[in-house]
Structure formats: structure tokens, C-alpha cells
Automatic annotation (TrEMBL):
Coiled coil: none annotated. This is Alpha-1,4 glucan phosphorylase. Its EC number is 2.4.1.1. Pfam families: Phosphorylase (PF00343). GO terms for molecular function: 1,4-alpha-oligoglucan phosphorylase activity. CDD domains: GT35_Glycogen_Phosphorylase. Allosteric enzyme that catalyzes the rate-limiting step in glycogen catabolism, the phosphorolytic cleavage of glycogen to produce glucose-1-phosphate, and plays a central role in maintaining cellular and organismal glucose homeostasis. The keyword tRNA processing does not apply. It comes from Reinekea marina. It catalyses: [(1->4)-alpha-D-glucosyl](n) + phosphate = [(1->4)-alpha-D-glucosyl](n-1) + alpha-D-glucose 1-phosphate.
């Protein structure tokens, strides 16, 4: 037997003591008592009891980090998709079973109390969830780090289905307060906007003075981020916008109360709502202001902290501060730091520029042109007149010095690399600005990083051969295994050290058990129990009855054409048709499970949701197919629902068109929990196949080279439509009223889109995808082979621990080390 090492401390706290604390908080913090308290009150009392440890940790960590003067990381992101914090904090503090026992003695199930917490959905999808996993890992690795973002009043919309169509409802995560956050008014900042720039000559020196048209206050809310083991607790600092002066007293005194108030409404609009677009540039003025608002507040905050610790001399500023740009969304921070250094701190341009480049690094998350941010030059000039000047200065120095030296007289290259895109309207390319202003640029999986160099920024790569690197994404195994899959965690802990959530390589210790009949049985028994739990969830959410003996085939991610949920749909329709043609069609029963939100303005994405819902309704109510196929589209997919579904998944759908999914992270979560991937050679699927072994994933479809070749040859979807009988039949099926009785043509747009344009090449991959599903079916029926493959997935996924990603960033990009806080 190996030793059972554990990282999570055994707290010097009994369940009895913890119970006393919860009850004390119920009475004194919540103002109620045991006989009367609602579940919600218990939830808050529990949070307050936990916070006694959390906030101690915040202070302890802050003191430690202030004392050592190590380089610190500032992770700038417009999105942090945190989900719920209670179970995670309990797990990371090592208090989960103590809390469970304490609540039991009060007559409460911990699961019911945890359900009362709303998700903190301050993000759209992968990019936002990655930021959340990364701050968990930075805290766990004791890296001095702060996450900076926006304290949105409304996070991502709540999704409902009305007659199969998506309807968006406002998210109200803070309606009843948030026990995890602390307001820090003493660290508020004032942010300038609009106005004009004055050029001033003083003692022979030219300088610029920005006279803002208005100012906004930025108020920080701190959310503790508890590292695993509970020693180190970092913070996520989220900025809320407020009117600079709540009332204009003169207007107020002359009877204009409402006018005085209206200015504050406008200011507070900035942090009102998260933009719900994933991978599309909204291009709206308010969005630019959001980006600037939080970037400027964060830089001012970093400055203030630097000066408090080091005095007014900024010589070591860049040595002590790294800033990571999570996509180009905070790229305006680059000219903002230049403005602060040059205009406010009187640095010479070259020195300021060297410091800026030493500070920033940039993560690219996509190659999709529609996601690459561009702002109209006119708009930036209006909102941030001084920044527009600085951007143009950065650009002109870059083009006339660096580009001219490398490619003398080459105007084509200058046109390509310029921050300014010329055309009917001049546009500012935020990607170019980010590359030019950063010391390092990374992609998020190996293939994506290669394509960033080869296709997106080839000339920049030629100019700076060492600037572009890869850091493959990861997920935190604390939330995505230990907390969400307690049965599997308990099973593996019978065989490996209990510190696996910190040292995920220890999962390789399960490999020798992949062939062991007893372990296979236990592993699949865990999966089955998780499925039985989820069957109830499906019934509650959709009213559909499904069997836990069916294959649970899961596609959960934002709805986007490139992710090809409609490819999944076409295959489901083909299966359905086969069973209608041949009632004895041989297949293991399957439940197809979808979860996805569409951006509210993304028409075809919403049509695809509608089509899946209508096909689902028809199939689920068709007695002829004898329950062989069920289709459920779970409404309001979000982090807390993912935590319930992923442990119950058998099959993981990762079917993007090759070259389009930068990495994917759901693919990692599902494989870690023992689901078999059916996927294309795209993003991190490639690395998952490499780690798990190609026998233990099912790969299909065109690869990047095939996609390029087909595009060059000329892609005509109608050719594929005509030449595959089954494909033609299912596409035609969308046209009549079979799935929308009495209302023909409601799904026709989905067919038209595929046959007439098919921008993500669904049709050419259809046949190969169907064959891949036959392999899944055959493998599942070989119970031993399936169990072995599932176990090998779990045992092989250590690479995708976000701790490993963060170690890569720390070593290769930030040049920082962990600093352990001492109790
Ligand atoms: C987003 O969630 C991602 C990329 C974007 O450009 C935007 Br905007 C939002 C996703 C990628 O699509 C995923 O492939 C990737 O795993 C994730 O970012 C995290 O890197």
C-alpha cells in the first residue's frame, strides 16, 4: 500500500465546534433562529462560518506577499466564470466533511444547502472559465497574484425555452447579497473619459494634458480565492462603476433631483451587464468603456500598491509586476500604462515603452476573424483622446523603426502589421497592438499556437522569433474532479495518495488497474450511480424519462456554428431514420444531452437550438423507436449544471471543424471524469489523444490540412448533399412539417444554411462522424474494453491540470515563483 499523503489540512476543528459557529452566525449575522431559518439563511450562515477561515487567509497571504517583495502577477480579464464558491472553499480548506457532519446534526443535507448558492456567472464560456481555473491554480501554487475584472451587476443571462426557442432573462446573482465579497472603498479610483488633450510647453518641455469630459468612480470588491490546502488565499478584485459625485448639489438645490440622479444612472451603466457574445466582437462604445474602465482602475491599483511598498521611484515597477492580458479585451491597458508613465510620471517615451513591454504578455484564444477585436479610430479618439495619440505614436515608431529595419521599403508588410487598418473607416487592430506591446504571446493548445504563428501573425513571428509560445490550457482538478465527483474521488483514493488533487500525475497510478476486473466494475459502478443521480435531474429540468443504462452522449459548450452542434443533430436524425426504417436496427440505447447558450443576436445559432428541441420532442414521443434514442436539451447550461452532468457522461462530443477550436476545456473535464471523446483533430483534443492513447479516443473527420485543401479546391456543400442518400434525406426532413406539425418550414433555415453555405464544413464530415459513432456503439457494448478505455482516460489526464498551465506561465512568461504563506 502506498502512503496516503494529504495536502488538505485536517483542521483543528470538530463538527461540534463548527456547528456552534454556524448556529452563532445564523442568529447574529442572519438574525434568525433554527426553527425558523430558510435553507437560504442556513446557506449564508454556513458561508459566514467558512469566512472566519477565509478572511484570515486573505490577511495572512497579503502580509507574506508584501514582506517578500516578489514579482506579482495581475491577470486582467473581462470575464471570470466562477460558478459557486461554497463547496470549492470547503474542499480547499479541508472542511467539507466537518461541515457535512455539522449540518447533519442540525437536520440538514449539505447538498441541499449548497444548492441555495447562485452561480457567479461573470463570463460567457471557455475564456471566462479558464480565468477562474487559473486563479484557483495561482492561489494553490502560492503565486502572488490578483485577478482583475468587472463587478457586473448582471452576469450571463438565464436561458429559458419557450416552445423550443431560447428566451433570455436577466441574471440576478447578487439579488440577496453575496457573502464572499468585501467592498474596499478605501481603494477606490477615479477614471477619466472623453474630453480633449492640451499640448503644454513648460520650461522648454512639451507635455500633454488630458482634460476629461467626465469622470467615473471605480469601487473594488474583493473575492477571496482559496488555494488548495487553505494556506494561501489570493483575491479576485472586481471593479464596480459609480457616479463620481452622487449628486450635483447645485442642480439638486434648484429642484432638479431627477437630473442629478440621471448622471449616476449613466455612470453605473458601465458595470451593469456582461456582454453575452462569445467569439464575436460587439464593437459597442459601452464595451470599449468597460474595457478601459477596468484596465485603468487595475493599473492605478497596481501603481498605488507599488508606491506603498517601494516609494515613488518606479525603477523596479516592471521587474515587480507582470500583467497578463486575457485576450485583447484589456489591450487598452497598454496605452494606459504608457499614459501614466509618460504623462503622469514624466518618463521619457523609450524608457516607458521598455517598461510597458516588460510588463505585459498576451494570450490569444481564437483565430476566428469575427472574434478579432477592432475599434473605430474615431470612437477611440472620442472616448480616449490621449490614448488615441499614444496608440498612433506606438504605431509610427514601430513601423518606421522596427519594421523598416527588418523589411526596408516594404509597404505591403507595413500595411499588414500596422495597428491602424486603412479602409472606408480607419480601424484599430487590438491584436496587433497586443502583440507589439507584449514581451510574449501565447496560444492555448499546441496546434493553435502553431497556427497563431503560421496563419495569424507570421510576419510578427519572423520579426520576433521568440515572442510566440504555447501554453496548453488546463482545468482545476479540485472543482472538476474532487468536488464534483466525490464517488470517483473516493474510489481512486483507495488506490493512490489522497494528495492527487495537488499532484495529478499520481493518477497514473491507476493505469495498472485498467485491466483489473474488480476495479473496472467499481469504476463503472461509480459512473452508473452518477448517471442514476442525473436521470432525476433530467426529469426535473425537461420532464423526459431516460434510462441510466443508456449511453449518455454529451455536448456542452456555447452554441456556435464552428462547434457544430448541428452535425450532432444530423447524426441523431440519421439514427432515428434508421430505426424507423428498420425497427430492429441494432444499437445500444443512447441519450443525447445538449447544454448551450446562444448569443442573443446570433440568429442561426438560435435556429439550431430550436431545431434540436423540435427533433427532440418528436423522437422522445415516438413509441416506434422503443426508447432507443432520447434527446434532451438542458436549459440554462452553466458551471453548477456542468458539475452535475460531467461525472455522469459516457461520451464527450468535441466535434469542431479542425483548426477552429483553439483548445477547448470541456474536453479535458469530461475525459478526466472517464468519458470517451468522439472528436476531430482540433485544439487540445489532439493532446488528449496523445496522452490517453489513440485507442482510447475516437477521432474522425478532416484534419487542418484537409480543410485547407478542400477550401482551395473550392467547397460546394450541394455536392455532398446530392451524393449521400442518408444525408440528403435528413436535410430534406428539416424542410417539411414532420418535426413541426402543422407549421411546415420552421426548420428550413438550418437546411438552407448547410446546403447553400455551410461555413464550417458540416457535410463533408458527416459520413466519417457516423462511422465514428458506430465505433462508440461497438466499444460500449464490449463492457471490459469500454471500462478500460474510460479508466485510461482518467489515469492519463494529468497534463491538463491548470496547475501545470500556471507553472508554464510562471516559468516561461511571468518569471515568478510561489511564496508560501505561513500561519
Ligand atoms: C472564448 O471562450 C474563447 C475564445 C475567444 O476568443 C473568446 Br472571445 C471566448 C475560448 C476558445 O474558443 C476555446 O477553444 C478555449 O479553450 C477557451 O477560449 C480558453 O482558452
Amino acid at each position: 500500500m502506498p502512503s496516503k499523503k494529504s495536502v488538505a489540512p485536517t483542521p483543528a476543528l470538530t463538527a461540534e465546534q463548527f456547528k456552534t459557529s454556524v448556529v452563532k452566525h445564523l442568529r447574529t449575522t442572519l438574525g434568525t433562529y433554527e426553527e425558523k431559518a430558510s435553507k437560504q439563511a442556513w446557506n449564508k450562515a454556513l458561508a459566514a462560518a467558512i469566512n472566519e477561515f477565509v478572511f484570515e487567509g486573505v490577511s495572512r497571504t497579503r502580509k507574506t506577499h508584501a514582506n517578500v517583495g516578489a514579482r506579482a502577477v495581475h491577470y486582467l480579464s473581462l470575464e471570470f466564470l466562477m460558478g459557486r464558491l461554497m463547496s470549492n472553499n470547503l474542499q480547499n480548506l479541508g472542511l467539507y466533511s466537518v461541515a457535512e457532519e455539522a449540518l447533519k446534526s442540525l437536520g440538514l443535507e449539505i447538498a441541499d444547502v449548497l444548492e441555495e448558492e447562485p452561480d457567479m456567472a461573470l463570463g460567457n464560456g471557455g475564456l471566462g472559465r479558464l480565468a477562474a481555473c487559473f486563479i484557483d491554480s495561482m492561489a494553490t501554487l502560492s503565486i502572488p497574484a490578483v485577478g482583475y475584472g468587472i463587478h457586473y451587476e448582471h452576469g450571463l443571462f438565464r436561458q429559458e425555452f419557450h416552445k423550443g426557442r431560447q428566451v433570455e432573462r436577466p441574471d440576478q446573482w447578487r439579488e440577496f447579497g453575496n457573502p464572499w465579497e468585501i467592498c474596499r472603498p478605501e481603494s477606490a479610483q477615479v477614471i477619466k473619459l472623453y474630453g480633449y488633450v492640451e499640448t503644454v510647453y513648460e520650461q522648454g518641455k512639451l507635455s500633454k494634458v488630458w482634460h476629461p469630459g467626465r469622470t467615473i468612480r471605480a469601487i473594488p470588491w474583493d473575492i477571496p480565492v482559496v488555494g488548495y490546502g487553505g494556506q494561501n488565499v489570493n483575491v479576485l478584485r472586481l471593479w464596480e462603476s459609480r457616479a463620481d459625485k452622487f449628486f450635483d448639489w447645485d442642480v439638486f438645490n434648484s429642484g432638479g433631483y431627477v437630473d442629478a440622479y440621471s448622471e449616476s444612472v449613466e455612470a453605473e451603466t458601465i458595470s451593469k451587464v456582461l456582454y453575452p457574445n462569445d467569439e464575436t466582437d460587439a464593437g459597442k462604445e459601452l464595451r470599449l468603456i468597460q474595457q478601459y474602465f477596468f484596465s485603468a482602475a487595475s493599473i492605478a491599483d497596481v501603481m498605488r500598491r507599488y508606491k506603498a511598498a517601494n516609494g515613488e521611484d518606479l525603477a523596479n515597477f516592471a521587474k515587480l509586476n507582470a500583467m497578463q492580458l486575457n485576450d485583447t479585451h484589456p489591450a487598452i491597458a497598454i496605452p494606459e500604462l504608457m499614459r501614466v508613465l509618460v504623462d503622469e510620471e514624466n518618463f521619457a517615451w523609450d524608457e516607458a515603452w521598455a517598461m510597458t513591454r516588460e510588463t505585459f504578455s498576451y494570450t490569444n484564444h481564437t483565430l476566428l476573424p469575427e472574434a478579432l477585436e477592432k475599434w473605430s479610430l474615431k470612437l477611440i479618439e472620442k472616448v480616449l483622446p490621449r490614448h488615441m495619440e499614444i496608440i498612433l505614436e506606438i504605431n509610427s515608431r514601430f513601423l518606421t523603426q522596427e519594421v523598416e529595419t527588418m523589411w526596408p521599403g516594404n509597404n505591403d508588410i507595413k500595411r499588414k502589421l500596422s495597428i491602424v487598418e486603412e479602409g472606408a473607416e480607419q480601424m484599430i487592430r487590438m491584436g496587433n497592438l497586443s502583440v507589439i506591446g507584449s514581451h510574449t504571446v501565447n496560444g492555448v493548445a499546441q496546434i493553435h499556437s502553431d497556427l497563431v504563428k503560421k496563419d495569424l501573425f507570421p510576419e510578427f513571428d519572423a520579426l520576433w522569433p521568440n515572442k510566440f509560445v504555447n501554453v496548453t490550457n488546463g482545468i482545476t482538478p479540485r472543482r472538476w474532479m474532487k468536488a464534483c465527483n466525490p464517488r470517483l474521488s473516493a474510489l481512486i483514493e483507495q488506490h493512490i495518495d489522497t494528495d492527487w488533487p495537488r499532484y495529478l500525475e499520481k493518477l497514473t497510478g491507476l493505469k495498472p488497474l485498467a485491466d483489473d476486473q474488480a476495479f473496472q466494475d467499481s469504476f463503472m459502478a461509480v459512473k452508473h450511480e452518477n448517471k442514476v443521480d442525473f436521470v432525476k435531474e433530467i426529469k426535473t429540468l425537461t420532464g423526459v424519462d431516460v434510462s441510466a443504462d443508456a449511453i449518455f452522449d454529451v455536448q456542452i459548450k456555447r452554441l456556435h456554428e464552428y462547434k457544430r452542434q448541428h452535425l450532432n443533430l444530423l447524426h441523431i436524425m440519421a439514427l432515428y431514420r434508421r430505426v424507423l426504417i428498420d425497427p430492429n436496427y441494432d444499437m445500444h440505447p443512447r441519450v443525447f444531452i445538449f447544454g448551450a447558450k446562444a448569443a442573443p443576436g446570433y440568429k442561426i445559432a438560435k435556429e439550431i437550438i430550436f431545431a434540436i428541441n423540435k427533433v427532440a420532442e418528436k423522437i422522445n414521443n415516438d413509441r416506434r423507436i422503443n426508447d432507443k434514442i432520447k434527446v434532451v436539451f438542458l436549459p440554462n447550461y452553466r458551471v453548477s449544471l456542468a458539475e452535475k452532468l460531467i461525472p455522469a457522461a459516457d461520451v464527450s462530443e468535441q466535434i469542431s471543424l479542425a483548426g477552429k477550436e483553439a483548445s477547448g476545456t470541456g474536453n479535458m473535464k469530461l475525459a478526466l471524469n472517464g468519458a470517451i471523446t468522439i472528436g476531430t483533430m482540433d485544439g487540445a483534443n489532439i493532446e488528449i489523444a496523445e496522452e490517453a492513447g489513440s485507442d482510447n479516443v475516437v477521432i474522425f473527420g478532416m484534419e487542418v490540412d484537409d480543410v485547407v485543401a478542400l477550401k482551395n479546391k473550392g467547397y460546394h456543400p450541394a455536392d455532398y448533399y446530392r451524393s449521400n442518400e442518408e444525408l440528403k434525406a435528413v436535410l430534406d426532413w428539416l424542410e417539411g412539417d414532420f418535426f413541426t406539425p402543422g407549421e411546415p418550414g420552421l426548420l428550413a433555415e438550418v437546411k438552407r444554411n448547410l446546403v447553400e453555405s455551410d461555413p464550417f464544413m458540416v457535410l463533408p464530415d458527416f459520413e466519417s462522424y457516423c462511422e465514428a459513432h458506430q465505433k462508440i456503439d461497438a466499444l460500449y457494448r464490449d463492457k471490459k474494453a469500454w471500462a478500460k478505455a474510460a479508466i485510461l482516460n482518467t489515469a492519463s489526464l494529468a497534463k491538463f491540470n491548470s496547475d501545470r498551465s500556471i507553472q508554464d506561465y510562471a516559468q516561461n512568461i511571468w518569471h515568478v515563483k510561489g511564496v508560501e504563506a505561513k500561519s
